[in-house]
Amino acid sequence: LTGLSSATEELKSLMEKRNQSDALEAKAVSKEPMIRKLDGDAKILKEVPCEDKFPTCKFIVEATKAAQIAKDLRDETAALRKERDNLLEKLTGLDEAKRRVDEYKTVNEKINKLTREIAQNTVEKERKSAELSELGKKLEMFEKELKESKDAGDIGRLFKKISQLTDDIAKLDSDLAKC
């Protein structure tokens, strides 16, 4: 059971890392529209013929800020994706952990099933052994009666009973061997 517990914990940890990885990617993707907008705003710097000769110009100031913010967001997005990639590298064992947990559960179910079958067979064997013992006692009793009996009619009836009991014993022996 400790094997299942540790494999389940490992699987849980890997699934959490997968969720973290997905969250990082979603965060990175959410920044892309803002980066595109800021890139468009920063594009103005390339279109202005005076370039940066008028540092107080409102358009140049805004375009410069947009370019810097876009660069910062691209750097942040790259860092998020790098962190996501590092997490994904750690997830290589996820499928193996799932397979081991499933395999352990399957083996455990088979063990439980076989344990139940063994218990049922043990009970059946004990029941058949008790029946066999009882029939053996009856056979001994009839054999004793046969020896003591003087009447020929009684002997035929007792031989029939002995034969029947012998057949029953043979059948029980056969059933007992199957257990």
Characteristics of this structure?
single chain, about 180 residues, mainly alpha, 5 helices
User: Counting H and I runs of at least 4 residues, what is the number of helices?
Assistant: 5
Specify Rg, calculated over alpha carbons: 43 Å
Query: Strand-residue fraction?
Result: under 5%
What's the SSE pattern? HHHHH
Helix coverage percent: over 70%
Q: Stretches where pLDDT falls below 50 for ≥5 residues? A: none
End-to-end Cα distance, whole Å, is: 30 Å
Largest sheet: none
| Mean pLDDT across every amino acid position | 80
Shape: rod-shaped
Number of strands: 0
Secondary-structure map:
Layout: H1 2-42, H2 44-47, H3 58-90, H4 94-148, H5 152-178
Description of the molecule:
- The protein is mainly alpha-helical and 179 residues long.
- The chain contains five helices and no strands.
- The protein is rod-shaped, with a radius of gyration of 43 Å.
Summarize the structure.
Helix content is 89%, strand content 0%. It is mainly α. α1 (2-42) packs antiparallel against α3, α1 (2-42) packs antiparallel against α4 and α4 (94-148) packs antiparallel against α5.
